[in-house]
């Protein structure tokens, strides 16, 4: 009985993780393609290095800080 609430909560959290993971997978797939092309870590817009700190934080980043508008 006491577990019912937790179970629902867990299901909700799991579906949230799954939906955000699907998007992340798409991004990671793009990042892997860029690694193959030797372009990983470069901004897709200005071709400048995205920056190690940003990549550490967001490994699938496609744009540099400036271009992503953050
Ligand atoms: Zn850029």
Automatic annotation (TrEMBL):
The keyword Metal-binding applies. Residues 38-67 form the Zinc finger DksA/TraR C4-type domain. GO terms for molecular function: zinc ion binding. Keywords: Metal-binding, Zinc, Zinc-finger. InterPro entries: DnaK_N, Znf_DskA_TraR, Znf_DskA_TraR_CS. PANTHER family: GENERAL STRESS PROTEIN 16O (PTHR33823:SF4), RNA POLYMERASE-BINDING TRANSCRIPTION FACTOR DKSA-RELATED (PTHR33823). This is Zinc finger DksA/TraR C4-type domain-containing protein. Gene3D superfamilies: DksA, coiled-coil domain (1.20.120.910). The keyword Zinc applies. A zinc finger (dksA C4-type) spans 43-67. It comes from candidate division WOR-3 bacterium RBG_13_43_14.
